Amino acid sequence: MAFWNLDTLHLEQFRPGILSKAEIGKDLIMVCMKIEPGRADSGHEHEFDQCGIVLEGPIEMHVGSEARLLESNDCYFIPAGERHGWKTFDSAVRLLDISRKPSETSNN
Amino acid sequence: MAFWNLDTLHLEQFRPGILSKAEIGKDLIMVCMKIEPGRADSGHEHEFDQCGIVLEGPIEMHVGSEARLLESNDCYFIPAGERHGWKTFDSAVRLLDISRKPSETSNN
Fold first, then answer.
1. What interface predicted TM-score (ipTM) does this complex get?
2. Does residue A104 contact residue B31 with C-beta atoms inside 8 Å?
3. Which CATH number fits the domain that encloses residue A71?
4. Chain A hits for B28, Cβ within 8 Å
């Protein structure tokens, strides 16, 4: 499926507090994600780049030593290996998030 | 630079008819692109996935045998190896486009 209309895209439970829909290719994973209010990821890291755009904010994100309150249309780029996390507030947040698909032959 | 505000992001000439700003990581290239009205790419292909979201349309895109008129907030996913192209109409188009960074050790 080459195209998504975000208004009609059906999201499914991904993990507690997060609904998502993913398109998985050879190299990339594109995910539309809806995160409930009042959720947080205090931080983690991985050996692949990740980036995206906020469709509906606000969401606080930290990447390395930078932290920012992101609103709709703000973009982020998380370099491989950088510790990062996020926090939502009183409203649900939607993101379009893209990461490199980890290789099946490595732990990266 | 981890974050982009699209309202203030400075784009530079990339090739005739296209302004862009790129963030290049280890694995991914994230590009904000502005394409002039009346431009087209009749089609090409490459051995890496590419995807993105239309920030300002309309743009006609074709991916393999599917063609679609995309408006703002529509997303696309171009699987590695699929022939794809696009056409703009009477207004400039803005995209956020992400592709896998081709490996330095291969032609993919």
1. 0.92
2. no
3. 2.60.120.10
4. 28, 49-51, 77, 98-100
